[in-house]
Amino acid sequence: MHRNNIARNNIARNYIAGQWVDALSGETFASTNPANGELIGEAPKGGRADVERAVAAAAEAYAKWRKVPAPKRGEVLFRVAALLEQNKERLAQLLTREMGKVLPEARGDVQEAIDMAYYMGGEGRRLFGYTAPVELPNKFGMALRDSIGVVAVVTPWNFPIAIPSWKILPALVAGNTVVFKPASDTPILAIEFVRIFEEAGLPPGVLNIVTGPGGAVGETLMSHPAVKVVTFTGSTEVGKRVAELAAPTLKKVCLELGGKNAIIVMDDANLDLALDGILWSAFGTTGQRCTACSRVIAQKGIRRQLVDRLQARASRLRLGDGLLETTDVGPVISRRALEGIHEYTGIGQAEGAELVTGGKVVTDGDLAKGNFYAPTIFDGVRPGMRLAQEEIFGPVLSVIEANDLDDAIRINNETAYGLSSSIFTSNVNAAFEAIRDLSTGIVYINAGTIGAEIQFPFGGTRGTGNGHREAGQAAFEVFTEWKSVYVDYSGRLQRAQIDTDHLVDLA
Ligand code: NAD
Question: Is 254 labeled as catalytic in the residue annotation?
Fold first, then answer.
């Protein structure tokens, strides 16, 4: 087996136990540019045996890594941050080519990982536990955050650097080791990301990557008895399967799943601002963000005007290769995704919604080589329609009319998902009512539904997840276990809740 090169004959490799290796089967799969079909690279088609090796490597490395002082673990992350900064432009260009988002957004994707690496590097000197008074004399109590073991990281393609960073960086600084399985649409970028950790001096086995199909690689990993934590971002359907696979071995499971996010626009809103927020949230990343706005809930006084202005702006958005400065909206990830999105246009029309703009696959000139969908807006959508309830994950926006604030909030809350929501209003009372009553994990006031920052908890309610949050301090609820420590220095047996006479002793 050839070792120690990230690629051989332009075929990328997995990283297991500190070695760059081919899949044991020798098989590979292609990763292509969704804008034009260009071959980005070949990645190893891992399988069950590759996962076994990676988990064994991570389990072995854990014995040492958990004992490396956390500030020293943090220092590796600071080096990761610096290397990501040095490689930012190269990674961003590759990201646009492999995933499709426009270059400024690709730079943002990498920047998010840089921010996370600095933040989590700093956690090496915090990872706060706490002390509290204890009820018995001459006794001390504290709660510590402890590492857990091997963490399985399974990620989608839409934030190919940022999402893995949300998981891998806090897992590592907390003292765990990782086996990473990225989405099969963006394997080359994932391998490049892992290479940064190798360059930063992460010891062998602490981070391993196995690329390959969700079935063989993902399922083996999710059900492996030596894996103690599963952190998964992807569709709700696969998330449920992950929870089932992890249940028999009682793993800790963090699921970040789909969304059906809405922007509420009240009659008193600054419409120019609302328009900018809606267009950015609905068509940025070609609508392929978990926080993308796919519903606008417009109060009845401004709905007509809002729809007209949205239509005018959306129909002028320029589709194209994300590397070109002239491009506003890049391709969608795959032919299959394109077909799935177009199906919803048919569903919306059959349900009686009014197609205002878009609604078609675009094949003009060079666009025919890629997967392009016209930014699409439906008006006259009713809250119960499939268009308004199901995640489409593409550039499709539904406008729903609401009578007043209560109506708008009710419509927002009545979906199976609960990730992000937003309200545009100039009424401070309405804004605070919305903060209180919108039942999503993220709420924006006078901003779109996208644009989370890494120091705050990220995640959602209902079908968006299982109650966990990523990022910020919340990440450590996933990647650490609490250990409560009692030190009794009284020199005698003291029984909590039973020996209650010590107050008498003091009297
Ligand atoms: P997906 O569920 O198809 O795949 C996600 C990952 O799971 C991939 O790596 C895939 O290979 C793997 N996988 C597939 N089947 C598996 C199985 N049976 N067992 C284990 N792993 C398996 O999702 P996707 O198409 O890559 O991403 C889009 C979805 O991700 C959307 O639903 C979107 O809302 C969601 N998403 C959510 C968030 C969030 O934080 N809530 C963020 C980004 C994306």
Answer: no
> Domain 11-257+465-483: which topology?
Aldehyde Dehydrogenase; Chain A, domain 1 (3.40.605)
Q: Across-strand partners of 230?
A: 152, 253
pLDDT of residue 505: 56
Point out the ligand 1 atom lying closest to the alpha carbon of residue 219: 19
Residue-level pLDDT at 1: 44
Pick the CATH number of 261-445 from 3.40.50.720, 3.30.420.40, 3.40.190.10, 3.40.309.10: 3.40.309.10
Q: What is the DSSP letter of 275?
A: H
pLDDT in tens, 10-23: 789 999 999 999 99
Q: What is the pLDDT of residues 394-410, one digit of tens each?
A: 999 999 999 999 999 99
- Whose CA is closest to 152, among 52, 284, 32? 52
Mutate to test the pocket of ligand 1, among 290, 391, 450 (most ligand atoms within 8 A of CB): 290
Residues 215-224: pLDDT tens digits? 999 999 999 9
Integer Cα distance of 44 and 8 in angstroms: 11
Is 290 annotated in the active site?
A: yes
Q: What pLDDT score was predicted for residue 2?
A: 47
Q: To which residue do tokens 């600054």 refer?
A: 270
The tokens of 494 are what? Answer: 């003291």
* Beta-strand pair 150-154/227-233: parallel
Catalytic residue among 290, 293, 391, 470: 290
> Position 409: which residue type?
I
Strands 252-256 and 227-233, sheet pairing:
parallel
Residues within 6 Å of ligand 1 by CB: 154-158, 163, 181-184, 214-215, 218-219, 222, 233-235, 238, 241-242, 256-259, 290, 391, 393, 419, 464
